[in-house]
Write a structure and sequence with these properties.
mainly alpha
């Protein structure tokens, strides 16, 4: 299991390269599912952020 700091860094890198691609969003979601406990505050925060980014990507299309 990775540290929370490492997971957040990886998440940011994935999202930065996203361009609104659903495939990239799924990769970020998988990272959170695999590396963070369900009760993790970081997981909750990043999941919420990911949902917001998905909504923005849909609006732009």
């Amino acid at each position: 299991m990775l540290t929370e700091a490492t997971v957040e860094e990886m998440f940011r890198k994935i999202i930065r390269d996203a361009n609104g691609s659903e495939e990239v969003f799924e990769r970020a979601e998988d990272l959170l599912d695999e590396e963070l406990r369900p009760e993790s505050p970081l997981r909750h925060r990043l999941t919420t952020e990911l949902e917001e980014l998905r909504k923005l990507a849909v609006k732009e299309d």
